[in-house]
Amino acid sequence: MSTMPPPPPAAPTPEPHPHLRPVPPVTPPLPGARLSARGLVKRFGPTTALAGVDLDVLPGESVAVMGPSGSGKSTLLHCLAGILVPDSGAVTLSGRGLHDLDERERSLVRRRQYGFVFQFGQLLAELPAVENVALAPMLLGTSRKEATELAARWLASLGLAGMEDRRPGELSGGQAQRVAVARALITGPEVVFADEPTGALDQATGTDVMRILTETTRLAGASLVVVTHDAGVAAWCDRRVEVRDGRVVADVRQQAAR
Ligand SMILES: Nc1ncnc2c1ncn2[C@@H]1O[C@H](COP(=O)(O)OP(=O)(O)O)[C@@H](O)[C@H]1O
Ligand SMILES: [Mg+2]
């Protein structure tokens, strides 16, 4: 009888294929959240703007995202808004993965489900106030006549009756931001994003704009995400999230100013 050759030495355990490596556990979106971010990472070359951000925003809730300049606030807002695609992580809006959509579908989400208020309003300088506001529903298929009537009602409800035909250059900074608030809310969005909405205003006017922004989004049932480095602005929100070096370092509920 021939003897069996000795078994070959055991091969070292191979490294698993990168796709098969266990991924760190990711908590699912909070049930009932309107907007959820999980593990958001965004790099610009050597700079890590977001280093793994989780955030849940409830329906109707207002959240101030605070932090010093360069901490990643605007990058976070742009990822939540589907303007920037994160390198990894996911954003879920009302149960739908934003980054599973193609660019055309994401732009529809931005028009239908989101509203935006920026530091300088981003109004179209050549259009009168009423047309700046009416444009949002017209882009969703509402007739010019109906959109214009609705826009005039929104302007009146924000204290701008009689200013419908003024161009942005003929409005004060505070009035222009009211037009921007009307434009953001006229389409009935689920979430309104504001990036330093009072950054170009004096303090009294800024307070006025924050009162109108928070009151109007609350009445409309929209959630609000406000990026600011100003504690006075954050005081108008139900919750304060602090960002440092691309990470959330604090998340506190508070009694919002009214
Ligand atoms: N488009 C970009 N290209 C290169 N670096 C960027 C870009 N956008 C942001 N950054 C960098 O990412 C970091 C976070 O920026 P940002 O989100 O704008 O901060 P914040 O809004 O808190 O001031 C900063 O270091 C900034 O310089
Ligand atoms: Mg910013």
From TrEMBL:
Keywords: ATP-binding, Nucleotide-binding, Transport
Coiled coil residues, start to end: none
Residue span(s) of domain ABC transporter: 35-257
InterPro entries for this protein: AAA+_ATPase, ABC_transporter-like_ATP-bd, ABC_transporter-like_CS, ABC_transpr_LolD-like, MacB-like_ATP-bd, P-loop_NTPase
GO molecular function per UniProt: ATP binding; ATP hydrolysis activity; transmembrane transporter activity
Pfam family name, one: ABC_tran
Cellular component terms per the entry's GO annotation: plasma membrane
Annotated spans, Disordered: 1-31
SUPFAM superfamilies noted in UniProt: P-loop containing nucleoside triphosphate hydrolases
CDD domains: ABC_MJ0796_LolCDE_FtsE
Alphabetized PANTHER family for the sequence: ABC TRANSPORTER RELATED, IMPORT ATP-BINDING PROTEIN
Record-given protein name: ABC transporter ATP-binding protein
Species name: Cellulomonas triticagri
Lineage of source species: Bacteria, Bacillati, Actinomycetota, Actinomycetes, Micrococcales
